[in-house]
Design brief:
- InterPro entries: N2O_reductase_NosL, TAT_signal.
- The chain has 189 residues and is α+β, with helices and mostly antiparallel strands.
- It is built from four helices and eleven strands, in the order H-E-E-H-E-E-E-E-E-E-E-E-H-E-H.
- It has two domains: 36 residues; 133 residues, no CATH class.
- A hairpin with a 2-residue loop joins strand 8 and strand 9.
């Protein structure tokens, strides 16, 4: 190799390293943006953006999705009466080209839920206060348990693995990371 070729190879390595660094920095920025988003309270007469039901009037987990463009929600996150409505709306929005920045669900590891029966259905109380939510990146959901929510069969979210195990022991179901939920998961409920 001549001396002229060495700087060229070094320059390529330097440019490749800078490119990787910029990619990682951009990914870090996106991650930081998601981490800085906080949930809002869903109390009052707030209606579900998926089905129109008043959120705090119904049992079970509730959710919210914060989007990059804040539309058509008009500067607020999408708000939902159930985890199934949350995921359905988010999947439809993603199919339409929108970018969700953070998705939050009721975290039953953070609240003292009440368990009650309505007919033969077992239900958990709803929690709409901002402190009751965790991002789906931190949650495990239990599908196909005996517990139903506002829209019937439901995904019940927890951040603590011991709570997941205790729930499954008592109510059955199949745990999975909340980020692994797909349309087929909802269809199988």
């Amino acid at each position: 190799m001549t001396e002229h070729q060495r700087p060229s190879a070094s320059r390529r390595r330097l440019l490749a390293g800078v490119g990787v660094g910029l990619s990682l920095a951009a990914a870090g920025c996106l991650g930081d943006e998601s981490a800085s988003i906080t949930p809002i309270s869903l109390d009052g007469e707030r209606a579900c953006d998926q089905c129109g039901m008043i959120i705090e009037d119904h049992p079970g987990p509730v959710g919210q999705v914060h989007f990059e463009d804040d539309e058509p929600e008009g500067g607020r996150p999408g708000q939902f009466c159930s985890s199934t409505c949350t995921y359905t709306y988010r999947f439809d929005a993603e199919d339409a080209g929108r970018t969700p920045l953070a998705t939050f669900l009721t975290d039953y590891s953070l609240v003292d839920q009440e368990v009650f029966k309505e007919g033969s259905d077992t239900m958990f109380s709803s929690h709409v206060e901002s402190e009751a939510f965790s991002q789906t990146t931190e949650l495990t959901v239990v599908a196909r348990s005996e517990v139903v929510g506002a829209m019937g069969p439901e995904l019940i979210p927890f951040s603590d693995d011991d709570d997941v195990d205790a729930f499954v022991d008592e109510y059955g179901g199949e745990p999975m990371p909340a980020e692994d939920v797909e349309r087929s998961t909802l269809e199988a409920l």
